[in-house]
Amino acid sequence: MHSEDALTRLQDAAILWSVGSDTAADVIAAACDCLVAGVDSPTLRILAGISPARGSESDELRRWLEGTLTELSLTYYPEGSREGEEEAVRIMARRLLAETITPRDLTSWAHRFITWDGTPLAEQLIGLEITYDILDSGYGGHEDSDTLEDVGADVISEAHRLIGETAIGNG
After folding, report:
1. Which residues, at least 6 apart from 160, have a Cβ–Cβ distance to it below 8 Å?
2. What is 76-96 written as a DSSP string?
3. Deepest of 42, 80, 148, 169, by most Cβ within 10 A of its Cβ?
């Protein structure tokens, strides 16, 4: 793994952890990847050395994460911050567009980790998750209603919008 890829993975893991999506162990593993890739700082070594065993790892992570990210010129988002939620939504949108997750994975994730109380940036995705649920329940049986493929295309279009790209037409 190249150092830039390792730093991106650490940044993403820290952001996703801040919204409750990734675990402390995911952030610790990303810190270890940074060291393996040749990225180094005093607090990165401490962060990578935190035991990922369940229990106090999140407390240790809270203690060292901000300093580590600052030393590495990365951005720290406090747990539950609106800015962190917005960046997490964009990370997941990029994963969809990179085809590492499905449209349904993205909407389910937004519904579970951002919720209606979170950033308005995720509202469209959460609404599309509800559309998926309606279709799954069999209520979408009218000729003019959406199909699963239509909803998936809407999710992909929304992902493009979220990361500031123009969606490519569905020729």
Report:
1. 93, 97, 166, 167, 168
2. ---TT-HHHHHHHHHHHHHHH
3. 148
Which of 12, 19, 5 has the alpha carbon at shortest distance from 69? 12
Single-letter amino acid, residue 128:
L
The per-residue pLDDT for range 1-16, each reduced to its tens digit, is 799 999 999 999 999 9
pLDDT attached to residue 146: 73
Which range, of 14-28, 33-47, 51-65, 131-145, averages the lowest pLDDT? 131-145
Three-state SS at 7: helix
The one-character DSSP state at 44 is: H
Q: Is the pLDDT of residue 40 over 90?
A: yes
Q: How far apart are CA 53 and CA 33, in angstroms?
A: 18
Give CA–CA dist 55/58, Å, rounded.
8
